């Protein structure tokens, strides 16, 4: 079996690496951090113009339809550059579930704007005090053919810029997944701070009316949609973490090869080489389990166990490799 990348995948990877490598400089990141709003909108538009925002969006909706594995390659490049763009919440947590579970009207109304960069749709996956996104605390009650929503959502990325927020609520008939206008009546947003610096918001819903045309799924279909959203989000997070770890490892390899002590590179010291070798093995394992999860998801097979393994490895490897990189630089 051939596990090598397809030519079009290598093209996406190379183009993303070139754009992000040219545009995401230390000076540009510092300037954005100084504003307190870590979203590089010109870079987002440049990625859109290059066709990269639509790599996993179907051709009928303005994308190129290359699939989830190709999107994970893009996420890895974003991780390498620590690029301040909302790939994960927009292109993974929102776009992919909508593409798979929404009706034609919603797909045609929303997905072309995401592929072109004209609009942003984000996802609200986190609730205060709730560790299980498959069973939301937010409540929905029927109001004719519409729904009235009440609840709280946290860590909603770019809710202030979004055209819609994709979120779930519970009802007597089971969960419902809807699109909510963050500027609509009954919705209030307040900024939240995150260690990543990404603009995130607490979202309070008080009798927010959602019309029937903005209902994406309900009942068992909504349960399946939430499970799928969780899996692709975790796999995408692992792919982005892989990029961060690969970059840390590369920077450390360069530094230890150039830094001399006692007249020789410190990379030749046994303690340094052993620590770097452990980090290399960690990153290789993270790459393997991430690719396994992404492959199963693209094929539509059961990826629950693979995604959980990728999640665990991403958390552990990011911690170990970052500690090793900082110690070897020190």
Question: Topology, please?
Answer:
Blueprint: H1 7-23, H2 26-35, H3 41-49, H4 68-81, H5 87-92, H6 95-101, H7 104-116, E1 121-123, E2 139-143, E3 146-157, E4 164-171, E5 174-180, E6 187-192, E7 200-210, E8 215-218, H8 219-258, E9 260-261, E10 264-265, H9 270-299, H10 304-329
Parallel strand pairs: 1-4
Antiparallel strand pairs: 2-3, 3-7, 4-5, 5-8, 6-7, 9-10
Helix pairs in contact: 1-4, 4-8, 6-8, 8-9, 8-10, 9-10
Structure explained in plain terms:
- The protein is an alpha+beta fold and 330 residues long.
- It has helices spanning 7-23, 26-35, 41-49, 68-81, 87-92, 95-101, 104-116, 219-258, 270-299, 304-329; strands at residues 121-123, 139-143, 146-157, 164-171, 174-180, 187-192, 200-210, 215-218, 260-261, 264-265.
- The longest helix is centred in the C-terminal third of the chain and has 40 residues, at 219-258.
- The radius of gyration is 21 Å and the shape is elongated.
- The model has no long low-confidence stretch (mean pLDDT 96).
């Amino acid at each position: 079996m051939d596990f090598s990348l397809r030519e079009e995948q290598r093209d996406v990877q190379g183009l993303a690496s070139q754009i992000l490598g040219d545009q995401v400089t230390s000076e540009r990141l510092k300037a954005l951090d100084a504003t307190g709003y870590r979203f590089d909108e010109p870079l987002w538009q440049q990625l859109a113009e290059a066709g990269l925002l639509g790599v996993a969006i179907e051709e009928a909706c303005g994308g190129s339809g290359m699939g989830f594995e190709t999107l994970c390659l893009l996420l890895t490049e974003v991780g390498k550059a620590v690029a301040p763009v909302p790939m994960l919440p927009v292109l993974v947590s929102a776009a992919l579930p909508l593409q798979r579970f929404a009706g034609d009207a919603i797909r045609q109304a929303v997905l072309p704007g995401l592929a072109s960069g004209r609009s942003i749709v984000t996802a609200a996956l986190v609730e205060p005090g709730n560790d299980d996104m498959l069973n939301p605390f937010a409540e929905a009650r029927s109001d004719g053919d519409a729904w009235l929503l009440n609840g709280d959502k946290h860590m909603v990325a770019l809710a202030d810029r979004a055209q819609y927020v994709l979120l779930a609520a519970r009802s007597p008939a089971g969960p419902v997944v809807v699109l909510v206008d963050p500027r609509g009546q009954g919705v209030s947003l307040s900024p939240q701070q995150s260690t990543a610096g990404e603009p995130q918001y607490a979202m309070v819903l008080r009798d927010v009316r959602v019309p029937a045309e903005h209902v994406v799924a309900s009942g068992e279909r909504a349960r399946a949609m939430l499970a799928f959203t969780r899996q692709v989000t975790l796999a995408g997070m692992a792919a982005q973490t892989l990029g961060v770890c690969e970059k840390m490892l590369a920077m450390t390899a360069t530094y230890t090869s150039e830094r001399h002590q006692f007249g020789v590179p410190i990379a030749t010291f046994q303690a340094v080489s052993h620590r770097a070798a452990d980090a290399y093995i960690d990153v290789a394992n993270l790459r393997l389990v991430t690719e396994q999860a992404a492959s199963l998801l693209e094929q539509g097979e059961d990826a629950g166990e693979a995604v959980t393994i990728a999640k665990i490895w991403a958390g552990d490897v990011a911690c170990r490799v970052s500690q090793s990189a900082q110690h070897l630089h020190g």
